[in-house]
Write a structure and sequence with these properties.
By secondary structure, the protein is of the alpha/beta class. The protein is built from 12 helices and 11 strands. The longest helix is centred in the last third of the chain and has 30 residues. The chain binds adenosine-5'-triphosphate. The site of adenosine-5'-triphosphate has 17 residues, from α2 and β2.
Length: about 350
């Protein structure tokens, strides 16, 4: 029998729908918090399944929220054929209707290891492109699985909330619309849309602890404890984020009052440090170190410095990355140290 009815669109794949919901919510929230009509949002596109699904959903959702959508692809130049990978990702983005699509080749330094060198170079390039194109937001494709892996890796290192709170859904220019979406969903979304993602060889390189967590640890936990483990780990991150953001705000509010300039540095009153619980005291010390000296202190450092307050026996100064910390009467004084091998400044 001839079919006279108008052609029906195939039903939308649930995976595509889920990715679009994540993007729509993130963009709507950004619009509510001031992202202007007509603003450009850029998808940071590696060509992998997560950012490819993100790019497609953004191409669909952005115009509905009166936003323009483009993409930035970074070529780290670390593997043979990386330029072709970047080019293919850029063409896919153009095919989706994203504009502009910008490819940036970067030089990766090896200071803190190739992984962190690549990350620094990537974020530097993405931020530059965002500034040059006047983009109002950059969308990253981190998923719920990435968040769960981050929490597990942090637990294994004995990290505190600053690390266990995982990646923020919004951080200045950066948005992560897929933090509630499983990686299997982005893969399914690409398949449903006929997109062919690039497979990053690093993702199967078991020298990386994240890859071992992804391929070996999380699957065992899900098998033994139930399929909700990844969601639960991501929820842990969310709760710790709420708590630690509240504590950070409290410290930011009090810091002006308890600090004073000192010769070649800054001083914090001993009594202010003594009166506050360790959770706040450690944050005060970390904030002073990062804001005044660009240095990041770990728990070992803050515990050591705190002894100048809680266990004062006339001990000498303590050297932590980039900073010398000493007790002088009723003050804890921070001064910059010259270049030293331990310094983490910069
Ligand atoms: N070379 C790149 N160019 C532009 N953006 C990138 C690049 N590499 C990573 N990103 C961005 O950072 C996000 C997280 O990067 P990561 O390397 O952890 O990728 P991933 O979780 O495997 O995601 P994907 O499947 O998109 O590669 C990506 O989803 C993407 O938004």
């Amino acid at each position: 029998m001839p079919n006279n009815s108008s052609p029906r669109r195939p039903p939308l794949s649930p995976a595509v729908a889920e990715v679009r919901v994540g993007v729509r919510r993130a963009l709507a929230a950004a619009r509510d918090s001031g992202l202007a009509e007509g603003a450009l949002v850029l998808v940071a596109l590696s060509g992998g399944p997560d950012s490819l699904a993100l790019a497609s959903a953004t191409a669909f959702e952005a115009p509905k929220l009166a936003l323009r959508a483009g993409a930035v692809v970074v070529d780290h130049g670390l593997q043979p054929g990386s330029a072709e990978v970047a080019d293919r990702a850029a063409r896919a983005a153009e095919h989706m209707g994203l504009s502009p699509v910008i490819v940036r080749r970067v030089m990766v330094g090896h200071g803190g290891g190739p992984e962190s060198g690549a990350r620094d170079a990537r974020y530097g390039a993405i931020t530059d492109v965002a500034a040059a194109t006047d983009a109002g937001a950059v969308l990253l494709g981190h998923t719920l699985d990435d968040q769960a892996e981050t929490v597990l890796l942090g637990l294994a290192r004995g990290s505190g909330a600053a690390s266990l709170r995982g990646m923020a859904p919004t951080n200045g220019l950066y948005l992560r619309p897929l933090l509630d979406v499983r990686r299997e969903t982005t893969h399914a979304a690409c398949a449903a849309e006929g997109l062919q993602p690039w497979t990053d060889p690093h993702n199967s390189d078991t020298r990386f602890s994240r890859v071992r967590v992804r391929n070996a640890v999380l699957p065992v936990l899900e098998r033994e404890l139930g399929p909700g483990v990844a969601d639960a780990l991501a929820r842990t991150a969310e709760q710790l984020r709420e708590d630690s953001e509240a504590l950070d705000r409290m410290v930011e509010e009090m810091i002006e009052e308890i600090c004073e300039p000192a010769e070649a540095g800054i001083a914090v009153s001993v009594s202010a440090l003594a009166v506050n619980p360790a959770a706040l005291r450690n944050r005060i010390l970390r904030l002073v170190a990062s804001s005044e000296f660009g240095s990041s202190l770990d728990r070992g450092h803050t515990v050591e410095i705190a002894r100048l307050v809680t266990d004062w026996r006339g001990q000498g100064p303590i050297d932590v990355p980039g900073i010398r910390v000493s007790r002088e009467g009723s003050l804890i004084v921070f001064t910059a140290r010259g270049n030293d091998s331990e310094s983490r400044i910069g």
